[in-house]
Specification:
Number of domains: 2
Strand content: 15-25%
GO molecular function: oxidoreductase activity
Number of strands: 8
CATH topology of the largest domain: Rossmann fold
CATH superfamily of the largest domain: NAD(P)-binding Rossmann-like Domain
Low-confidence stretches: 252-257
Organism: Halorubrum glutamatedens
Oligomer: single chain
Helix content: 40-55%
Largest sheet: 8 strands, mixed
CATH architecture of the largest domain: 3-Layer(aba) Sandwich
Number of helices: 10
Structural class: alpha/beta
Keywords: Oxidoreductase
CATH class of the largest domain: Alpha Beta
Strand order of the largest sheet: 3-2-1-4-5-6-7-8
Distance between the termini: 48 Å
Protein name: NAD(P)-binding domain-containing protein
Shape: elongated
Length: 257
């Protein structure tokens, strides 16, 4: 498979490394392109890959889009003519990307993947919407699984609703906790606060632009803010109700295991 990776950042490089790894079921060659030619050249350097200009007219068996979520529809329109067999994205929002691929790449195999981890923390779970299956997309999924990842199928709407909770809401809650709190000596930390501090470190080690894209694309932050205000304003009886709601429907015995 001759693959063009559009967007030579961490996730784009992960795609290239995954498809060309030893033991991958895909016999892949990779070309990188990026709006910053130096980034594409850096990604190709040290890999058995090439860099091509963003405005080149090369064609490839498959095109992978690894660009900011807000840029996906335009990128699909621009790069669909350069894909001969398949197009897929790994950008993290699926409804708009699938719609754009249906419009601009109707004759191609199509899929949207979302690695639910940062590349330094591979392997992990990868959500997948296979909109138009075929041998090229099956090979991509097989290569991702061969890298130790768990590929699970979903729908675009289910995925994007889930992102409101597990990305936008979770990140907003963690960042708000870090912003609202004061620095304390390490000895004061409880198991809960220490765990939150570690999570906040993980969130803030990334690129702010990526997290801004997530907040733009998905709801969730407003709900977190509303819940925090409700907790802050609750009397003891109302607090107990909220606390029980947060427990969910689990067997009480499971809460201490």
């Amino acid at each position: 498979m001759d693959l063009l990776v559009v967007g030579a950042g961490e996730i784009g490089r992960w795609v290239a490394d995954t498809l060309t790894a030893e033991g991958s079921p895909v016999d892949a060659s990779v070309a990188f392109t990026d709006r910053d030619a130096d980034v594409a050249a850096d990604a190709a350097d040290g890999r058995d890959a090439t860099a091509v200009p963003a405005d080149a007219e090369t064609t490839h068996d498959a095109v992978c889009l690894s660009v900011p979520m807000s840029a996906v529809p335009d990128a699909v329109a621009a790069y669909a003519p350069r894909a001969e067999r398949a197009m897929f994205d790994v950008s993290g929002e699926m409804t708009a990307s699938i719609a754009a691929m249906r419009e601009h790449a109707p004759g191609l195999e199509r899929a949207s993947y979302h690695p639910l981890f940062a590349p330094p923390r591979v392997p992990g779970n990868v959500a997948a919407v296979v909109d138009e299956p075929g041998p090229a997309i099956r090979s991509v999924s097989a290569a991702i699984e061969a890298g130790g990842n768990e590929v699970f199928e979903t729908t675009a709407s289910e995925h994007d609703r889930a992102m409101e909770t597990i990305q936008a809401g979770a990140h907003a809650a963690v960042l708000a906790w870090r912003l609202a709190g004061e620095e304390v000596r390490e000895e004061f930390h409880t198991p809960v606060s220490a765990a939150l501090d570690d999570v906040a470190d993980t969130v803030t080690e990334g690129a702010p632009g990526v997290y801004a894209e997530i907040q733009r694309a998905f709801g969730g932050a407003d709900e977190v803010a509303e819940a925090a205000r409700e907790i802050a304003d609750a009397d003891p009886e109302r607090f107990a109700e909220l606390y029980e709601r947060a427990r969910g429907d689990r067997d009480p015995r499971e809460r201490h295991e």
